[in-house]
Amino acid sequence: MTKRGRLILGLMRIEDMPVESLHDLLLFCLEKGITTLDVADIYSDGRSESALGEVFRRHPGLREKFFIQTKVGIVQKEGKTVCYDFSKEYLLKAVDNCLSRLCVDHVDSLLLHRPDILMDGEEVGEAVSSLLEDKKILHFGVSNMDRSQIEYLEEFLPCPIEVDQLQLGLGQSFLLSGPLNVDNPVQSPLETGGLFFFLKRRGIALQCWSPYQVGFFEGSLFLHPKMEKAQECLADLSKKYGVSPCAVATAFLSSLGENVEIVIGALRKDYIQESLDGIALPLEREDWYRLYCSAGNVLP
Prior knowledge:
Layout: E1 7-10, H1 19-31, E2 36-38, H2 47-58, E3 67-72, E4 74-77, E5 80-84, H3 88-102, E6 107-112, H4 121-133, E7 137-143, H5 147-154, E8 163-167, H6 174-180, H7 195-202, E9 205-209, H8 228-241, H9 245-254, E10 260-264, H10 269-279, H11 285-294
Parallel strand pairs: 1-2, 1-10, 2-3, 3-6, 6-7, 7-8, 8-9, 9-10
Antiparallel strand pairs: 4-5
Helix pairs in contact: 1-2, 2-3, 3-4, 8-9, 8-11, 9-10
């Protein structure tokens, strides 16, 4: 069975991509060793899953070469989030819809897409048990959850939580700022409570989404005016290591440990290659902290 890789291709924006262009991109990824694909039922109202499913339908045997991860639990109407729903009935129906759009009989991993404050652990556990028993999912994880939410769900689940997908990057480094300096200007609405080291200790994969964004979709790390110091530092280190600034920004994350995985939304081969270059780049410790401080973080 295909295993999850450290670099994950996020397919949020493929709904209008020609089938053969997407097929060509997937073949490129396979050639480069990228085998994990990340989607969600709400991406373009299901059309991203459908686009991927059409590739699998036209090219039998391709699906088995990839580790497919999708997410459910967000309820949207007219493109706007109205609530979260982790009820057993909703989760089972949502997964069936995902499988239909993807043209597959199972996904390799299912993530709950953001926390549902009203979630009942027993219902979630029953839903996951049913999905595992029917072999509609093989692995399970969550996204945007803190330690307390993970520990709560663990009491009811028949399997381990293998993934927590969180936003992390130079432009949004709150997960790293707390342990270093309680007066750090980088703040977050997420109650981290030592979440970074909790995940590391548990061996739960920390999947970094939007690794090159500033804040919550405020703009590109490489272009945003408030990230000028970070951009200067990235440019300097790119010269030192002979790689692109994107590769250096990727190395900033990959240096955090083997449990850290990076979800990139790039659909251009050259951008994907730059991220791959960063996965393999060993940053010197002093350079890592220089990057960290350039993003506005303060060392005690």
